[in-house]
């Protein structure tokens, strides 16, 4: 789900008949596709703007609620309030209107996920990620508060993270109000979400922007500690605690959180508004200082790497090759089926290169794949010959154009479960893969992860143990790359790739030596024949024929051998993914991760 709202509310019913009626009344402007989410104030649908040919999210007040004048007024006030806000971190309103028995407004479709979905799919974020997320929300709130708009329902479900860019957006100003306007809500009951409500909101006091900062502090607390400052089985219990009890200091539950970050969040959670940050801007600046402080800490391997101009050029070139290779594989399959700190001012992050490549039509995952081929130290791993030349050499060495071994599989499971299973299976026996690096954004957002292939092991008698490491090592493959793509809410496609550039480069060197040695052998043989026979010309031709025949036979044998190892290595890659699938099914059946196998004694990684 991309532009999401709160969980389903009893009053937000939207049956098939209503959907059909709405599709009819909006049919000249929008084509309704499917439901994205729903909340107490309406249902959000994915639609296509027929005039501008772009996807939009349409928020609709169901007919039964639209019939109530107060509800209709409040819903349209939401659209008018949000329409006044134009900020990079706020989902804007494009159009609002009434159609038949419905009231609705449209927003840009955000291809992303809520913070709740993000944590569910990939686990709790790092402190540095939390700082960035909170800072962008704080700037959005600072902008809204400066215009007299208080959100009143800041929670993870109303904070979106755009998948392609990582940009954070605040949405659903459904219960927002303008501080200088009437406090009309259309009803007399409390509005907001209990877990994230400020004390003054619970007590029905006058609100200003500092109430939203309290709620944002609860969001940060939950992201870092894995739980809320106040929890209870019943909503009244949680409300009473928010209104009367001091929040436990964040570091009492999460001592690993940097002190400066914990202090910033603890200050958001003070009971008296005057003791909190004075504005969203003040909080954002404090978080910027924390971010600068954390930047001095060595980033975890696999951060958004910095590339110099030479590397950017090479990565873009290689990304284009990878995309072309992928297109070629799809075409062949279709045919078969039908028959750190920057060191220079010009350094760019991988995510920035991905954004630039998108303008040239290169998908972000191929940029991440290309960047993943840059080993530690930044030495370029782009092939030393052109793509066309490399293809010719592949045919000469292997008998066909093979430059990658690729296996893909779709897992019908939540992303977090797939990631856990991958880490568990791949790093255990018999594979014993070791994490090398993660390049670009999270794998679910177009990043890539590389694993080192260990050397194959030996039996007691000195013979090699076959299987995955053996075939990879024979082909000169020392690492494999993992990329991921969503294929639905709970479906993840994983692709594992083994590059053959080093195999081709090594084969070229052997080929030159092979040709030279065969020429020498042929020359010596021809000289001996000329010396021993009376027909030197025919003898020479005969010897040359023997040499050529021998050479051709060895050449074909080389192709057969490579075909065998490619087939075995391909099956090994597919087994890698099949074992992950088996692990997921075991978890689904027994509810726990299977115990890892004892690792074999192995050679040097």
UniProtKB/TrEMBL annotation:
Signal sequence interval, chain numbering: none
Keywords noted in UniProt: ATP-binding, Kinase, Membrane, Nucleotide-binding, Serine/threonine-protein kinase, Transferase, Transmembrane, Transmembrane helix
Keyword Cell cycle: no
Compositional bias per record (Basic and acidic residues), positions renumbered to this chain: 327-336
Top-level taxon in the UniProt lineage: Bacteria
GO molecular function: protein serine/threonine kinase activity
Gene3D superfamilies: Phosphorylase Kinase, domain 1 (3.30.200.20), Transferase(Phosphotransferase) domain 1 (1.10.510.10)
InterPro entries: Kinase-like_dom_sf, Prot_kinase_dom, Protein_kinase_ATP_BS, Ser/Thr_kinase_AS
Bias type Low complexity, positions: 337-346
Stretches the record annotates as Disordered: 327-346
Residues that bind ATP: 59
Protein kinase domain mapped to chain residues: 30-288
Transmembrane segment boundaries: 510-531, 537-557
The keyword Oxidoreductase is assigned to this record: no
The protein's name: Serine/threonine protein kinase
Lineage: Bacteria, Pseudomonadati, Myxococcota, Polyangia, Nannocystales
């Amino acid at each position: 789900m991309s532009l999401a709202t709160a969980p389903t509310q009893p009053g937000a019913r939207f049956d098939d008949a209503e959907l059909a009626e709405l599709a009819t009344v909006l049919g000249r402007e929008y084509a309704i596709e499917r439901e994205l989410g729903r909340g107490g104030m309406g249902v959000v649908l994915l639609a296509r703007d027929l005039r501008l040919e772009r996807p939009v999210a349409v928020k609709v007040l169901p007919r039964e609620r639209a019939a109530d004048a107060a509800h209709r007024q409040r819903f349209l006030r939401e659209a008018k309030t949000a329409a006044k806000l134009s900020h990079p971190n706020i989902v804007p309103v494009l159009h609002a209107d009434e159609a038949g028995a419905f009231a609705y407004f449209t927003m840009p479709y955000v291809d992303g996920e809520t913070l709740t979905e993000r944590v569910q799919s990939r686990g709790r974020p790092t402190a540095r990620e939390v700082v960035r997320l909170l800072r962008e929300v704080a700037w959005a709130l600072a902008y809204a508060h400066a215009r007299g708009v208080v959100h009143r329902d800041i929670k993870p479900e109303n904070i979106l993270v755009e998948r392609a860019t990582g940009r954070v957006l605040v949405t659903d100003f459904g219960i927002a109000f303008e501080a200088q306007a009437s406090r009309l809500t259309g009803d007399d009951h409390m509005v907001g979400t209990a877990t994230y409500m400020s004390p003054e909101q619970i007590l029905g006091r006058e609100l200003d922007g500092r109430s939203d900062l309290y709620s944002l502090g609860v969001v940060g607390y939950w992201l870092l500690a894995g739980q809320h400052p106040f929890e209870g089985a019943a909503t009244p219990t949680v409300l009473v605690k928010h209104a009367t009890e001091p929040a436990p200091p964040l570091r009492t539950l999460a001592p690993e959180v940097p002190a400066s970050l914990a202090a910033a969040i603890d200050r958001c959670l003070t009971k008296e508004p005057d003791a909190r940050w004075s504005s969203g801007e003040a909080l954002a600046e404090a978080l910027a200082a924390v971010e600068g402080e954390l930047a001095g800490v060595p980033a975890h391997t696999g951060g958004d790497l910095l590339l110099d101009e030479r590397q950017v050029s090479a990565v873009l070139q290689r990304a284009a090759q990878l995309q072309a290779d992928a297109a070629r594989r799809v075409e062949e399959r279709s045919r078969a089926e039908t028959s750190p700190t920057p060191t220079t001012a010009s350094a760019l992050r991988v995510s920035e290169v991905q954004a630039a490549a998108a303008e040239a039509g290169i998908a972000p995952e191929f940029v991440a794949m290309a960047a993943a081929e840059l080993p530690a130290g930044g030495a370029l791993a782009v092939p030393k010959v052109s793509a066309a030349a490399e293809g010719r050499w592949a045919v000469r060495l292997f008998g066909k154009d093979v430059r990658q071994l690729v296996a893909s599989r779709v897992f019908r499971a939540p992303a977090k479960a797939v990631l856990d299973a991958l880490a568990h299976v791949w790093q255990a026996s018999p594979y014993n893969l070791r994490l090398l690096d993660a390049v670009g954004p999270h794998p679910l957002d177009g990043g890539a992860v590389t694993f080192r292939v260990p050397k194959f092991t030996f039996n007691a008698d000195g013979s090699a143990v076959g299987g995955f490491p053996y075939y990879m090592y024979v082909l000169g493959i020392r690492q494999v790359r993992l990329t991921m793509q969503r294929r639905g809410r709970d479906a993840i496609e994983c692709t594992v790739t083994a590059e053959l550039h080093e195999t081709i480069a090594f084969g070229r060197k052997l080929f030159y030596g092979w040709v030279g040695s065969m020429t020498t052998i042929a020359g010596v043989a021809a000289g001996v024949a000329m010396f021993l026979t009376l027909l030197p010309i025919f003898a020479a031709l005969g010897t040359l024929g023997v040499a050529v025949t021998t050479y051709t036979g060895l050449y074909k044998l080389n192709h057969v051998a490579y075909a065998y190892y490619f087939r075995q290595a391909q099956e090994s890659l597919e087994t890698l993914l099949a074992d992950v699938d088996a692990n997921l099914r075991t978890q689904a059946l027994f509810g726990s991760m299977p115990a890892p196998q004892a690792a074999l004694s192995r050679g040097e990684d």
